[in-house]
């Protein structure tokens, strides 16, 4: 399994911020987690509101927890609310089931981490995460 280096994590964040700037997104916050759910890097743009670390990490953590991007979790919340209630309970409320949590896959398609982005609409957060992951040479999996 490929480990995600600090340099690659910072590249993901920088590219996600650049995508946000290019598309006129509101101030973003981006977290990169390794495959074990540990924070590799986090940055918050000037003007980002409070609780952004918790939201971004909840999106990424949820993606890692189920092995699918948080877009999939969002769909499950709509069609299987009891599943999400249970998942939330067993995770201690750590999971945020909306788009913006994207798995990072290496060249062998192994999950090596996840990115969580928050600050704009969930769809735009996801776009920024995907841009960051691709810029670092990995494959995004949004679910």
Structure description:
This protein has 143 residues and is α+β, with helices and mostly antiparallel strands. The protein has one domain (6-141): Haem-degrading domain (Beta-Lactamase, 2-Layer Sandwich), CATH 3.30.450.150. 47% of the residues lie in helices and 20% in strands. The protein contains five helices and five strands, in the order H-E-E-H-H-H-E-E-H-E. The chain has a five-stranded antiparallel beta sheet. Strand 3 and strand 4 form a beta hairpin. Helix 3 packs across helix 4 (81-90). The longest helix has 18 residues, at 6-23. It comes from Hoeflea olei. This is GlcG protein. Pfam families: HbpS-like. InterPro entries: GlcG_carb_metab_protein (IPR052517), PduO/GlcC-like (IPR005624), PduO/GlcC-like_sf (IPR038084).
Q: Reading side by side through the largest sheet, how are the strands ordered?
A: 2-1-4-3-5
CATH topology: Beta-Lactamase
Number of helices: 5
User: Which parts are unreliable, with pLDDT below 50 for 5 consecutive residues or more?
Assistant: none
Question: How many strands, which pairing sense, and closed or not: the largest β-sheet?
Answer: 5 strands, antiparallel
The best one-word shape is globular
Which structural class do you get from the secondary structure elements?
Answer: alpha+beta
H/E series, N to C? HEEHHHEEHE
Q: Helix share of residues?
A: 40-55%
Q: What count of structural domains?
A: 1
Give the integer mean of the pLDDT values.
Answer: 95
* CATH homologous superfamily assignment: Haem-degrading domain
Distance between the termini: 21 Å
Mind telling me the C-alpha Rg? 14 Å
**Level-1 CATH class name:** Alpha Beta
Question: What CATH architecture do you see?
Answer: 2-Layer Sandwich
* DSSP strand content: 15-25%
According to DSSP, the number of beta strands is 5
Protein name: GlcG protein
InterPro entries: GlcG_carb_metab_protein, PduO/GlcC-like, PduO/GlcC-like_sf
Pfam families: HbpS-like
Organism: Hoeflea olei
């Amino acid at each position: 399994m490929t480990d995600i280096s600090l340099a690659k994590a910072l590249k993901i964040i920088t590219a996600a911020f650049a995508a946000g700037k290019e598309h006129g997104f509101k101030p973003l916050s981006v977290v990169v987690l390794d495959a074990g759910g540990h924070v590799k890097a986090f940055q918050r743009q000037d003007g980002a509101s409070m609780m952004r670390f918790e939201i971004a990490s909840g999106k990424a953590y949820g993606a890692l927890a189920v092995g699918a991007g948080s877009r999939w979790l969002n769909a499950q919340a709509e069609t299987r609310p009891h599943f999400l209630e249970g998942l939330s309970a067993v995770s201690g409320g750590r999971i945020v089931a909306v788009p913006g949590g994207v798995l990072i896959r290496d060249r062998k398609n192994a999950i090596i981490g996840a990115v969580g982005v928050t600050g704009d609409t969930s769809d735009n957060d996801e776009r920024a995460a995907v841009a960051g992951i691709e810029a670092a040479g990995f494959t995004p999996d949004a679910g």
